[in-house]
Amino acid sequence: MGMFTLLPTPVSVRTPAEARKAVAILSKRFILAVDTETTGLSLLHDRAIILAISDGKDRYTVWPEAIPYFKKLLETPEIKLIMHNAKFDMWMLSNIGINVNKGCRRDYAKVYDTMVMHALLDDSAEHKLKTLSNDFLQIEMIPFNELFGKQMRKRPLHDVLLDSANEQVVSNYASLDAFATYYLFLLFSRWLSEMPITAATSPYSKMWEYYTGTELLYTKVLWEIEMNGMLLDREALQGVAPGLEKRSMELHKWFIKMTGNVAINLNSDNEMADLFFNRLGYSPRTWTAGGAPQLNEPVLSYWAVRDCAYAKRLLEYRDTNKHLNTYVLGLLRLMGKDGRVHGNLRQTGAKTGRLSSADPNLQNQPGYIRNVYVAPGDSRMAAADYAQLEMRVLAHFSDDDTLVRSIKDGLDIHSATAAQMYKVPYEAIIAARKADDAGEELSNDQRRYLKYRKGAKTIGFGLMYGQGARRLSDTLGITVPEAQALMKVYFKALPGVVAYFENAIKQARKDGYCSTLLGRQRQVPGITSTDGALRSSSERQVKNSPIQGTAADITKMAMLNVYRDPLITAAGVRMTAQVHDEIVFEMPKNVENDADVNQRISDVMCHPFDFDLLVPLEIDKKYGDNWAEAK
């Protein structure tokens, strides 16, 4: 049994007397671990039917008839709670009328999440409760599907969990989750307290301080954003479908005409592979593990930028069908009775510290779909988007003269970089952009200037995502040698960036990790590997993660500042989404013209830390009746 010679016997709580006795004992504790067994995994439609609670000494299984007796206990602000994947359990409890944050100040967080804590300790490992319990506590837990999978094929989960024949197994399974969560918290909190933060700019000296100063309250903020949700215009959403269906049919007819095959199936990978590699004669670029040539998006995109009409149209067909199924029919399925979608904002979704989201994936909503995300009749939507956030972070880290000067002077970063690369006037590139935006006929010089800017922009963002010459050549539709030459010119124009990346890689080799501005770490064990591919991958992570992670730090702290600010709160401003570098708000109509509130939002977003970056942060904030207008 590892660190436990004997696990405590589960205490089953059903009767009022049993409930009162358990509550009397647990009310004396200052921290409890809580887990839920639910009717399913939908945040909106499922609910908790069994509670599991542990104080580290005992473990309790609370059956449905006794749950109401625990409402006051769980809603007591002074009693802190530990959960694993806390937002899910908070949802499941809320769906049965228990709000664990009830009565808490906005700046007070009482729910610790061991999943988030473990992500700070080791971003490369999986964060599943069963795995962690086995690895760190030597408590072997039988997977849920192994226990109940066969029964669930015949009847609903609700019936399986509450079947009296399963009572002993369910009680042991549920209460062991809470018991393990309690002891994982003890371990993780100690390890985080011992984990030093080496980033000179961080106000924290240990990772536990970082967790309690950022991620702890952030869990609560994200849960409230999910609860707020985003209102959808059902009629407008349904109106999008016919246009997508029409375009899908047009593309299908084009393939029939070009191939002479009336039965062509554009959804068949094998049929499309035969078309491109055999009939059209294209050479494979990548292969599956089994040795078959791949016809994926990168391969099709490579041919598309080289004017392959078949690749362009197959990409558009796939994209059109994805939009229909994901963004139209998918959103309709996810809409709740309140007319809103309540997405899952995953706090551990990206190793860099960025959020990911699901149900729906708000990070990837096309422009035309943003029209259907609307404000209620008495409200307006607003979107505050950081301007070129990652490039500003790169300027801060690198202290490159060209980058810093262009930002401080209010110049377009990519145009200024292109001007430095090719020794052409900045004003000429800007004039070419304006002419292109106005739809004017461009001169050969203007086309050349725009090509310069596109190259500078592509390299700049590619560097932050760890892209090399091959990927750049694919994106720009040029040869690999041409891409290498372009990168050489870019690096020559920005020597500070080159020096920063070289020093960052050197430091990562010494430390085994790289850090964000606030000290969040990403492990890069492959940085010293003799395997060239693994080492190169780790070096790309060192270039990417501090920039992406610091952008996440900035947005995260801005959201916490907005959430805690009394003026913004009193004005009725609510956050409803966070997408990349953008925060989406819903607020009363009168707030749009409230100079004080607008200035406060700008202030807390542009100055998220107790210190400022080498370059100023800027936001672009717009209002609208829907998300597209506010974007």
How does this model look, in words?
This protein is α+β, with helices and mostly antiparallel strands and 631 residues long. Strands 1-4-3-2-5-6 form a six-stranded mixed β-sheet. Strands 15-16-12-17 form a four-stranded antiparallel β-sheet. A three-stranded antiparallel β-sheet has the order 8-7-11. A hairpin with a 2-residue loop joins β15 and β16. α16 packs across α18 (444-464) and α19 (469-476) packs across α20 (480-493). The longest helix is centred in the last third of the chain and has 33 residues, at 532-564. The chain is globular. The termini are far apart.
Rg over C-alpha atoms, rounded to the nearest angstrom? 27 Å
Query: What characteristic shape results from the CA principal axes?
Result: globular
Helical content (DSSP H or I, runs of 4+): 40-55%
The counted number of beta strands is: 17
Average pLDDT value? 93
Strand content: 5-15%
Distance between the termini: 55 Å
Strand order of the largest sheet: 1-4-3-2-5-6
Question: Uncertain segments of ≥5 residues (pLDDT<50)?
Answer: none
Number of helices: 25
Q: Kindly name the structural category.
A: alpha+beta
Query: Largest sheet, if any?
Result: 6 strands, mixed
Topology overview:
Layout: E1 11-13, H1 16-26, E2 31-38, E3 48-54, E4 59-62, H2 71-74, E5 80-83, H3 86-94, E6 111-113, H4 114-121, H5 129-137, H6 144-152, H7 157-161, H8 167-194, H9 207-228, E7 230-232, H10 234-259, H11 269-279, H12 297-304, H13 309-334, E8 340-341, E9 344-346, E10 356-358, E11 373-374, E12 379-386, H14 389-398, H15 401-408, H16 413-422, H17 426-437, H18 444-464, H19 469-476, H20 480-493, H21 495-511, E13 513-515, E14 521-523, H22 532-564, H23 566-570, E15 574-579, E16 582-588, H24 595-606, E17 619-624, H25 627-630
